[in-house]
Amino acid sequence: MLVQVREAPGRGRGIFAARPISAGEVVLRAPPVLLYPQHGTAAAFCSHCLRAFNSLEENAASVVACSSCGLVGFCGAACAAAAAADPGSHCPAVCRLLSACNLAGLNDEQQTALQFLFRCCSLRAAVAAGDSDAAARLATITSLSAPPVLPPSDAADGAAPSSSGGGGGDGLSSWSAGSTAVRELHGRLNHALAAAGAGPAAALGVEEVAELLRRDAANGYGIMAPSAPDGERRIRGTGIYSLPSLLNHECLPNVARFDCFDREPSGPRANACVEFRALHDIPAGEEVTQSYFPLPWPLGERQQRCREDYGFECACPRCKEEATWSEEESEWETDEDAGMEDAEAAGAATAGGAAPAHAHAHGDQQQQQQQGAAAAGAAGQEQQVDPAYINLFLLKYVCPREGCYGTLAPLPGQPAGQPGGPLFECNMCGGRRSEAEFLAELEAAD
Ligand SMILES: C[S@@+](CC[C@H](N)C(=O)[O-])C[C@H]1O[C@@H](n2cnc3c(N)ncnc32)[C@H](O)[C@@H]1O
């Protein structure tokens, strides 16, 4: 087994390496427990598997509209049939709720939240009817961590988070049982349930609605749409994944998420699996962590989003170090300290398969950290990080394509010692760069 779940001090549950993991290895691969589309995307993405219609070879010809509501479409007959049979997808119960619900005056986030709630109500009804798979999926959703509600600011009450993944705005404070936004959604949901003739088993109380929305906000993965012609990236939908929802956040993570929503599926929703690849070697016992945000985000933004969207204060080594920086130092760029000597050390260590999460440490400290990583549990809580290492980490793992902000990870399954070193792939634009190219870019920038 590659990973194990256990308590991560101060972070709830976490995922830990059960054996040494090599750079580029797929640490986790998981199918979705629940997928739902972002409001306003029905014309462009399959409502079952979230595949982009314009990625289909036959393009619009194979798109199938829902024969009942006509409001959503599927990427083919197989997905239409799979959705109809799945109480957590666009099944007849969800279709009726979508048709019956009064969406007037709701913003995009609230309408997207209803997509999630409709599916939860439908799963509940299926559980009451004896569906054990629905019971397991609902149990997964209700076992996700629900961050505490922050006291609402005056401005926060009534506003929905700016994305269903908890993004921006006033975050979790909007998803409290007392907020106007939740009461409004609860009211609309109840009306829709009554109008659609749903039984009492499907109904949710206002507290349940608030808690489901908070669980979703802190654990759902926003699935990005391909870049629009203007370069803007939008969310096409949200996925809840069982084991991946236990990955905690670090601002210098050791895995990155890759998805393949627009690839040729080998079966309904095969395209909806997500995988997490190791950025560098991870020693046995070390916590496996991802960054909940693009790596180059500045300290203030990261801290605010951790607090407001996920309910915790990030105390990772990078945050602690950057808190001591002046404004100029906080501009992310290669500084004098991050010269070629360090760069080559970091590059060689990674290529040679010996870069622990905190390879920045010097001398004894580095050895101690490698040995202590297992015992320390939550990676690096007490450790310090060198500013030069932060710069190198960002230079190495942030996609160099302008405006991309994706994360580069080594491609899985590469032979050791290949010329030019391992090849890295961006999880957003798919761009690739070899270790040798990275080192050459550093040298040129010096
Ligand atoms: C996606 S879940 C991760 C799994 C979670 N620890 C659990 O027990 O289910 C996100 C939640 O984990 C906690 N968390 C994640 N990263 C953290 C960190 N660096 N420090 C403290 N808490 C963290 C927060 O409560 C956050 O809302």
Description of the molecule:
The protein has 2 domains: 3-12 and 17-27 and 275-445, no CATH class; 32-240, no CATH class. It has 13 helices and 15 strands. Helix content is 33%, strand content 14%. The radius of gyration is 23 Å and the shape is globular. The model is unreliable at 154-169 and 333-381 (pLDDT under 50). The protein has a 4-stranded mixed beta sheet, with no helix packed on it. The chain has a 3-stranded antiparallel beta sheet with strand order 3-11-10, with no helix packed on it. Strand 1 and strand 2 form a beta hairpin. By secondary structure, the protein is α+β, with helices and mostly antiparallel strands. Helix 2 (92-100) crosses helix 3 (108-128), helix 2 (92-100) packs across helix 5 (180-195) and helix 10 (340-351) packs across helix 12. The chain starts with a strand and ends with a helix. S-adenosylmethionine (SAM) is lined by residues 10-14, 145, 147, 218-219, 245-246, 248-249, 310-312, 314, 316.
Kindly report the average pLDDT value: 84
Query: How many E strands?
Result: 15
* Order of helix and strand elements from N to C terminus: EEEEEEHHHHHHEEEEEEHHHHHHEEEH
Identify the strand order in the major beta sheet: 1-2-12-9
User: For the report, how would you describe the main beta sheet?
Assistant: 4 strands, mixed
Distance between the termini: 43 Å
Cofactors and ligands: S-adenosylmethionine
Whole-number total of structural domains: 2
Number of continuous helical runs: 13
Calculate Rg over CA atoms. 23 Å
Apparent shape: globular
Q: What is the structural class? A: alpha+beta
